[in-house]
Amino acid sequence: MTSQTDVQNAAAPGAAAPQTTHTGHPHYGRITTTGQGDPALAAGLQKVLDGRWADARRMTREAMTPDMLNPIGVTMEEHRAHVLDQMRRLADSGMPGLGFRTEDGGTGDTGGALTSFEMLGHLDLSLMVKAGVQWGLFGGAIANLGDAETRGKYLPGVMSLDLMGCFAMTELGGGSDVQNLETTATFDTETGEFVVHSPTPSSEKWYIGNAARDGSMAAVFAQLITHAENGEELRHGVHCLLVPIRDEAGNDLPGVTTTDHGHKGGLLGVDNGKIMFDHVRVPREALLDRFGAVDADGQYSSPIDSVGARFFTMLGTLIRGRVSVGAAAGAAARTSLALAVRYSLIRRQFDHPATGKGIPLLEYREHQRRLMPRVARAYAYACAQNAIVAELHDFEKNPEAFDAERRREMESHAAGIKATVTGFANDTIIEARLACGGAGYMAENLLTEMRADCDVFSTFEGDNVVLTQLVAKELLGAYAAEFGDMDQRETVAFALTTAVDVVQEKARASTLWQKLIDTVTDRENTDLLDRANQLELLVDREEHLLETVARRLRKAQGEDGSAAFKVFNSAQDHMLQAGRAHMDSWVFARFAEAVDACEDPEAKEVLGTLCDLYVLDIVDRDKGWFLEHNRLTTERTKAATAARNRLCTKLAGKARTLVDAFAIPEFVFDVPMLTDGGVDAPLETTSGADERG
Ligand SMILES: Cc1cc2nc3c(=O)[nH]c(=O)nc-3n(C[C@H](O)[C@H](O)[C@H](O)COP(=O)(O)OP(=O)(O)OC[C@H]3O[C@@H](n4cnc5c(N)ncnc54)[C@H](O)[C@@H]3O)c2cc1C
Questions:
Q1: What is the spatial distance between Cα 111 and Cα 136, in angstroms, rounded to a whole number?
Q2: Is 461 among the catalytic positions?
Q3: Ligand 1: residue whose CA is nearest its atom 23
Q4: What structural domains does the chain harbor?
Q5: 10 Å Cβ neighbour count for 263?
Q6: pTM of the predicted structure, to 2 decimals
Q7: Does the Cβ of 208 fall within 6 Å of ligand 1?
Q8: pLDDT, tens digit, for every residue of 185-220?
């Protein structure tokens, strides 16, 4: 059995006897240093992270108060009441109006609204989600799918919270496959009403935010049905209708049955529930008819002929929720990293053999490897998130400037960044909690609640696997379109050139990767720190994956449904890999653009190092691919690991500054594990000196 002393000796051979003179908080042991940041450098870095909506961030930051933090240890009902109170505060502050068009009573600042929602992710994810359901999803459905009259009638109440509502899309029988949901909305020509109905137990709406308690109306997604003159049933696909569900006293309306989901794995401040409809009648005007209308005679019309195209166009207008979820998860991940980094600078374990003083956690190589690559990715994702927010903002301001291709790309990147960042956030929050040891497990230090709340971000607003597949499908669609336009002669010529190009590109990429790693390892030779080269390397991996998966899928062409599915299904892992590789390079490109635009030389240099670490981290995580595809030799992958380690140590010297630049309100760090200790020399001078010297 290994004793505590063995472990100490193993960690620090020849160590002096453990010092017992450190005093600290009885719960957290010997806390002796805080690690101070460099405010000027942090300000330079913050400017890059704050991005185009820096003003919205500043205003939200100033309005954020400690009582908006996730209340720890309260009952579910207390948390729900607390979140509703905070929502009222937000409504009074005018924040929701940012996201609605001026003609609907808002200020039309999509970017500002998304940025403000993102900031809530630093405080309480329940508040962010409830705000997102009310203003982003329920309000967003009315704003994007409703006509002027409907918008005028309902949106003021949505903004002020006089009308609280649900976004009722998911059913027990199907969450990801929304196109085949079962709820029906059948037009009754006799009365001029729609009959909304849940025909089977599996058609019950499940998991719906605001459904358990506060919602009095729901934007219900249902199969729209009309009848031809001869009585034939005509199905027009999924549409959205506004259906009142509760009276003023909070009771279910006739034909509506709501059920409270009660305790969930997290997000206890949000009242999720189920809704069942039993032939509930709503007037014809309840249909949000931007993409499909029914006239008084029961005639259906739509500007889009194909049911599938109509459905995806409609969903495309609702991507704001998806962008918000990714953004808030990114904010939560940054908070968790800031907590873990601060703790790692004050928490000491085992004594240094030379000084006899306790060693701060972040001095340990492994701790640096756990936290610093995630800090680098947090920077990259924040920049990429800013880019997608800007794209959506510009689109909503001027949709005509977006052709079909650019629009499809925006939708695909919104899906991809949601999957990427929520996956990252879940992984990072867990690592941050582990990096804080037992203290991380105490709810008072915020990480456990954050972990529980963030969990479902990988599932809702589109499951991450399904969304990544969507990214890959979009890439393959673009690839097929390029191929599809060619005649046979051109196809053969293209294939031959491609084959030559592939060989040349592969050789070039391999050389570039080798050089890149040499460069990062040997800092004398800096020419390969060129971002364009780094991007080329990431794109090479993406293109290789895409070309090879396309080749596999070509076999499915001309096959019937089940044979085609078999081919497609056997290549699914390959497709997902292509989707992830694309997001890696897309994120890198957005990060590199943000770094290029940075005017502060010192900040720019640090951001450059973060960029390098982002790239080397990809190599380290996907080593197998680089080896299997002859992009790197084993010697070089080992060198890449060594280079990554070196960058981790270099950046650990600035860790506090790097997380200070996240500009999270200071009250968030007023937690016992960070406040109940003494103060000693900051670590910043230790690891940092190593690199500067
Ligand atoms: C707390 C919470 C709040 C929610 N709020 C709302 C709300 O307000 N309104 C609303 O409409 N919905 C809401 N949802 C529903 C949410 O959007 C769905 O849960 C989500 O879309 C996933 O659907 P599902 O649960 O049916 O999972 P499924 O689609 O059944 O997925 C289950 C698993 O199968 C995998 N899978 C699915 N399809 C594929 C495939 N083609 N290939 C490979 N793997 C696949 C997924 O990766 C996942 O791991 C909420 C859910 C939760 C948990």
A1: 13
A2: yes
A3: 175
A4: 40-159 (1.10.540.10), 164-314 (2.40.110.10), 320-672 (1.20.140.10)
A5: 8
A6: 0.89
A7: yes
A8: 999 999 999 999 999 999 999 999 999 999 999 999
